[in-house]
Amino acid sequence: MDLGIAGRWALVCGASKGLGRGCAEALVSEGVNVLINARTEAPLRQTATELRAISARWTSAAGQKEPEVLAVACDITTPEGREAVWSAPGGPGRDFDIVLTNAGGPPTGDFRHFTSEDWQRAVNANMLTPIELIKAVVDGMAERGFGRILNITSSAVKAPIDILALSNGARSGLTGFVAGLARSGLAARGVTVNNLLPGKFDTDRLNATLEAAARKTGQSLAEVRQAQAAQVPARRFGTPAEFGALCAFVCSQQAGYLTGQNLLLDGGLYPGTF
After folding, report:
1. Whole-angstrom Cα distance, residue 187 to residue 190?
2. Is 85:95 a contact under the CB 8 Å cutoff?
């Protein structure tokens, strides 16, 4: 299926590894120009190099101009970091067609031990920064008649996890904001806003959560991994490539009627009907 997004520009945050990288790979494979962002320069540059190899293969297969890949290493949770993205040489400024917000999850632990500063950092990274990014691009998208805004949140938005108190709170706040924004008339102007809720995907973030569970229970990490995978009806953890494939579809021309949704990817783990 031709997703109809070749030649568009996407901003992909947290793209040096994990789910963000999976999304960037899927978009480049569809001919989308990407500006990838993460805090640490070396892995981000390596990811950019590997994305350019994907871009070259797409050109060979499609016979069209290869997608561009730009990389900006910065802390996008700061005004200075966001300005570095908007002013990146060769980039589209603020005229992105696709924006994927994605922040590393805040620390795990007992909420009794978190300070007000911990909560402020979590809310800034996982709620306020996505809102700032959306605010910067959404009106331009509406004027041009096309936009796809996606936020990587967490399955914990639907089924909170006790050791993820910071994430539960901050991401739920973003979810409420998106629900209102998506129904504000943007879809009639070609702009959709959705959340992607990952369950147990084989990423560094999952490993950190499993390590915390191992410390809490006294089990080995291998035992915790095996037990956690066994709980998933698919009997395995998801892959970033699977996550990226859904991201690319939600960004597609065909997904213009899909907005205001929380799309759960968890291998069937969530037990509810709704």
Report:
1. 5
2. no
Query: CB atoms < 10 A from the CB of 259, how many?
Result: 19
Cα atoms in the 13 Å half-sphere on the side-chain side of 84 = 17
Tokens standing for residue 257: 């009627």
DSSP string, 191-208: EEEEEEEE-SBSSHHHHH
- Half-sphere CA count of 33, side-chain side, radius 13 A: 14
The residue type found at 72 is V
pLDDT digits (tens, 9 = 90+) for 84-110: 999 999 999 999 999 999 987 787 788
pLDDT per residue as tens digits for the range 187-235: 999 999 999 999 999 998 788 878 888 898 899 999 999 999 999 999 9
Return the closest-CA partner of residue 14 out of 189, 244, 259, 270: 244
257, amino acid identity: Y
Total Cβ atoms within 10 A of residue 176: 12
Q: How far is the CA of 249 from the CAs of 200, 231, 240, 256, 271, in angstroms?
A: 20, 28, 14, 10, 25
Cα 176 from Cα 87, distance rounded (Å):
30
Of 181, 189, 93, 92, the C-alpha closest to 130 is: 181
Q: Rounded CA gap, 100 and 152, in Å?
A: 7
Q: Which residues, listed in sequence order, are joined to residue 194 by a DSSP beta bridge?
A: 150
Specify the 3-state DSSP secondary structure of 74: coil
How many of the other CB atoms lie within 10 Å of CB of 207? 12
CA pair distance 248, 96, nearest whole angstrom? 15
pTM higher than 0.90, yes or no?
yes
Give the C-alpha separation, 266 to 245, whole Å. Answer: 14
Cβ atoms of 3 and 244 within 8 Å: the answer is: no
